């Protein structure tokens, strides 16, 4: 995930205000405006002279830029940079984590974020891209790519008594079709829907995902997992929609309470054969999984033969990190 700076040169207070509201990590502007911008929000503010733009049009300039960045200078490749020289710079360890490039559109920002798959670590958005800035920040900072999801068939729904369940309240208002991937095994997780739906007894709470038992795995950003019971305020969680598109949300509050629970079991056909997985969720009408068409379905309405969206993965995690090990979770 790159750091995103907005370059306000010449200075515009209106542009800077919009950039800060959009969630940029920093502002570059003329030296005389640095302190004023610092008073507006807590972020990195740099004078243009401290992060100067430099052209990259030849091998000699590429080598000079690499040497200067390795020597501690913070340089920004001026708009018009090309992929191959940027790849050459990113391939050098002394440069890779410090390279910055200017972009003037969402397409250029996407290009910068995808160079050598890892992307450029710093993207500097020019004023001509101001209208696209919110989309640039959202896509580069929040989007986590796409996961492969598939349909699974419910085989059993049974009551299992009381248990501690966790509500994950986020700083994000989610939409229909969005939720978190949760399951008893990291190898088989269920798309557990946010509380976006109204009914006559309970108001919608689209910031909340009732994520199930404290022991369950939640699929997290960066190809990691975490026990639901270990999530805390300020953590970032992975939000997934019905098509597998992912984004980040920050946890505002965790609520752990004793509630009646259901054990839901399902099967999925994969290239390796039939997979079985399960999840414990609260026995309440407001708790929902997701049908293959993206509509939420209450857990109390599930019956054997119903289809829901799940994710199959390879078992094997140590402190949330993927490992190669022969593990069987049942």
UniProtKB/TrEMBL annotation:
Pfam families: DHQS, DHQS_2nd. One of its GO terms (biological process) is amino acid biosynthetic process. Keywords: Amino-acid biosynthesis, Aromatic amino acid biosynthesis. Residues 152-329 form the 3-dehydroquinate synthase C-terminal domain. Residues 12-137 form the 3-dehydroquinate synthase N-terminal domain. It comes from the Bacteria. One of its GO terms (molecular function) is oxidoreductase activity. NCBIfam families: PRK02290.1-6. This is Dehydroquinate synthase II. The lineage of its organism: Bacteria, Pseudomonadati, Thermodesulfobacteriota, Desulfovibrionia, Desulfovibrionales.
């Amino acid at each position: 995930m790159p750091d995103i700076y907005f370059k306000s040169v010449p200075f515009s207070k209106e542009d800077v205000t919009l950039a800060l509201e959009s969630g940029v990590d920093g502002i570059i502007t003329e030296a005389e405006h640095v302190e004023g911008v610092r008073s507006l929000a807590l972020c990195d503010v740099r004078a243009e002279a401290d992060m100067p733009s430099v052209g990259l049009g030849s091998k000699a300039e590429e080598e000079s830029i690499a040497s200067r960045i390795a020597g501690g200078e913070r340089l920004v490749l001026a708009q018009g940079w090309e992929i191959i020289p940027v790849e050459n710079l990113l391939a050098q360890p002394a440069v890779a984590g410090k390279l910055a490039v200017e972009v003037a559109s969402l397409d250029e920002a996407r290009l910068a974020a995808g160079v050598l798959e890892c992307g450029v670590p710093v993207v500097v958005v020019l004023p001509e891209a101001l209208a696209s800035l919110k989309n640039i920040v959202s896509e580069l900072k929040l989007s986590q790519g796409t996961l492969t999801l598939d349909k699974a068939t419910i085989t059993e729904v049974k009551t299992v008594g009381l248990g501690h369940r966790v509500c994950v309240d986020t700083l994000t208002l989610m939409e229909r079709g969005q939720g978190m991937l949760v399951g008893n095994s990291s190898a088989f997780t269920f798309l557990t829907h946010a509380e976006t739906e109204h009914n006559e007894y309970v108001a919608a709470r689209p910031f909340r995902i009732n994520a199930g038992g404290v022991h369950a795995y939640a699929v997290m950003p960066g190809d990691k997992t975490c026990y639901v019971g270990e999530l805390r305020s300020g953590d970032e969680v992975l939000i997934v929609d019905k098509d597998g598109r992912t984004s980040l949300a920050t946890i505002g509050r965790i609520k752990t309470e004793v509630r009646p629970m259901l054990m839901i079991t399902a099967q999925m056909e994969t290239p390796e054969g039939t997979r079985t997985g399960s999840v414990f969720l609260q026995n309440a009408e407001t708790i929902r999984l997701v049908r293959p068409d993206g509509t939420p379905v209450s857990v109390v309405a599930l019956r054997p033969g119903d289809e829901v969206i799940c994710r199959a993965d390879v078992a094997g995690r140590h402190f949330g990190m993927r490992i190669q090990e022969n593990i069987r979770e049942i």
